[in-house]
What we know:
9 helices; mainly alpha; disordered N terminus
Amino acid sequence: MTTDATAPADTTSAPMPGTPVTGPVRAAALALGDDALFLSHRLGEWAGHAPVLEEEVALANIALDLLGQARVLLSMAGDEDELAYLREERAFRNVQLAEQPNGDFAHTIVRQLFFSLHQQLLFTELAAGDGPFAPLAAKAVKETAYHLDHAEQWTLRLGDGTEESTLRTRAALDALWKFTGELFEPVPGLEEVDWTALEDRWLTALGDVLDRAGLALPEGPRTGAWAAGAGRQGLHTEPFGRMLAEMQHLHRSHPGASW
C-alpha cells in the first residue's frame, strides 16, 4: 500500500507570471482554481484531527499540492489573494463536491477518490494538448497520481475492512454520489476536452476500484434536483458559506496587512 505521508509537495506549482488570461480561458482558470482551493481548505481542516499522525501529514501534503494548483490557476485569472479572499459567495465557480464537509474519515476518502480520479483524467488530457493549461496539467498530473493512489488504497482498506468501515464507506458513497454529475458538465474554455468520454473513463475506473474494495457504484441519480452544474454557476450548498466566512475572515478583518 502506498500512503507515504512524507511524499513531498511539488514545489514547481508556483504562480505563473505574465498578463492574466481573459474570456473563456479565464472562466476555466477560475473554475479549476476554485475546485482546488476549496478542497485544499477542507483537507486542511483535518490538521490536529486525523485518525493517525501519518494521515495528518498525508492529508496536509495533498492539501498543499491542491493549494499550489489553486495559486497557479487563480494567478492566471488575476490577483490570487483578491480572488480567494474578496469575492462573494456567488462569484466562486467550484463544483459542489469540493466544498462538502469532511464528515468522518471514510467520507473524506470517498470525496477524494471521486475528485482525484476526475482530476487525474482531466489533467492527463489537458497535458497531452497545447492549450494554456497544458504546462500546469503536465506538472499537476504527477501530484494527482499520488492523491489518487492514496484515496484508492484507503478505499480498499475501508471497503474490505471491518463491518463498521464498510458501512461507513457505503454511506459516504451514497451521500456524495449526487455531486459527481457536475464534474462532467462542460467548462467554457476547455473545449478540447471530450467530457462524455472523460465521464465514461471515470465510471469505468471508479467501478474497478470499488469492485476490488467489495463495494458497488451507488444506484441513485448523480445530480440533485438543482445541482447539475450549479456550483459552476455560483450556486453552493449550505456548508459553503460558513467555510468561506472562516477562510476570508482574517484577510477581510485586516485589509492590506502584511507580515
